[in-house]
Specification:
The chain is of the alpha/beta class. Helix content is 47%, strand content 15%. It has 14 helices and 13 strands. The strands form three sheets. It has an eight-stranded parallel beta barrel, surrounded by five helices. The protein has a two-stranded antiparallel sheet with strand order 6-7. A two-stranded parallel ribbon has the order 11-12. Strand 6 (134-135) and strand 7 (140-141) form a beta hairpin.
């Protein structure tokens, strides 16, 4: 099992030190989320100040960009990191794509399949000299002149991981991507009964097997050095679960446990801005399904027991233990 660290940060003077510390702790990858900062620029710093960690966008919003822009970003980071870059993509949701990014939205699973296929075609042109002739329903790329072709770097194309919750996008991941970025709003039950069988269906379409594919899962953890910090973490994760649970597209996860009636309640409260009350609707049984709840010295073992046979890598931070102990936590997970 590989262990990745997730940061939501911009470019600042402390970033090189923080990244180097994460690599020294034994982390296998450094993931950047596209929230309030660009997800690509910090990875340039990470490439410069690390030697072995893989560098992941987790996620970059795919439909805010086009395949040529993503191909260029991915190619440059793959070259600069000497083959350590993973392009993690996510679709986001319609309101964000149309109202925040002012970009088109339609048929997200089909569009994502075509976007990744277009990326592969562009990279094949640059690295293998294959003439560019990609013609799809959503994207068309047929022009590439020498002036706009980057130098061959010899590290191959970046891996592409795709974020998904629903079965349509999950099957696309299995069909055309190199890995799945499982959404944090996923339970062990949903993964076993829905996610993994759907991945297998996608892999079968492309003639691949599970050995050709990585599953990466960000772990919600409730823990703390004392009772006060433990309860603070519990309340915080309950609010995150409630926020995700209010999204109609994620209702099938709740349905799988018989909690589907919770989704419209959460959705109504979210529209009213009653965020604290949303968290109070999440019972301990729901929390236990979505999060690992354990004392600090039991966290790694509990993650291994729940997900060790399901995933290839996890994303988790350990703010509830002293920095000197975090390397031990990482080692404990990697022993799986």
């Amino acid at each position: 099992m590989k262990v990745d660290a997730l940061l939501e940060t911009g470019l600042d003077e402390a970033l090189p030190r923080r990244i180097a510390e994460l690599e020294a702790m034994g982390y296998d990858g450094f993931a950047m989320a596209e929230t309030s900062h660009d997800p690509f620029l910090p990875l340039v710093v990470a490439a410069e100040h690390t030697r072995r960690m893989e560098l992941v966008t987790s996620i970059a919003v795919a439909f805010a960009r086009n395949p040529m822009i993503l191909a260029s970003l991915g190619n440059d980071l793959q070259a600069y990191s000497k083959g350590r870059f993973i392009l993690g993509l996510g679709s986001q949701i319609k309101p964000h794509i149309e109202k925040r990014f002012s970009m088109p939205w339609s048929h997200p699973a089909a569009r994502m399949r075509e976007m990744i296929q277009a990326l592969h075609a562009i990279w094949a042109t640059w690295e293998e000299g294959v003439p560019l002739n990609f013609r799809g329903e959503f994207y068309t790329h047929t022009l590439m002149t020498p002036a706009f072709s980057p130098e061959k770097h010899g590290f191959g194309r970046p891996k592409v991981f795709l974020a998904a919750v629903g079965q349509g996008m999950t099957e696309v991941a299995g069909e055309v991507a190199d890995g799945l970025l499982v959404h944090g709003f996923t339970t062990e039950k949903y993964m076993r009964e829905v996610t993994l069988p759907t991945i297998e269906a996608g892999l079968a379409k492309s003639g691949r097997t599970r050995a050709d594919f990585q599953v990466s899962f960000p772990i919600f953890v409730v823990s703390g050095a004392d009772a006060e910090s433990f309860e603070k973490a519990r309340a915080g994760i309950k609010q995150r679960v409630a926020f995700y649970g209010s999204t109609p597209n994620y209702k099938p996860v709740l349905d799988r446990h018989g909690w589907g009636d919770l989704q419209p309640e959460l959705n109504l409260l979210s529209k009213q801005g009653r965020w604290k009350e949303m968290g109070e609707l999440i019972g301990d049984d729901v929390l236990d399904a979505f999060a690992v709840v354990a004392e600090p010295d039991q966290v790694s073992a509990k993650i291994r027991a729940r997900f060790g046979d399901l995933v290839d890598r996890v994303t988790v931070m350990f703010p509830f233990v002293a920095p000197a102990r975090r390397a031990d936590m990482v080692r404990g997970l990697k022993a799986a």
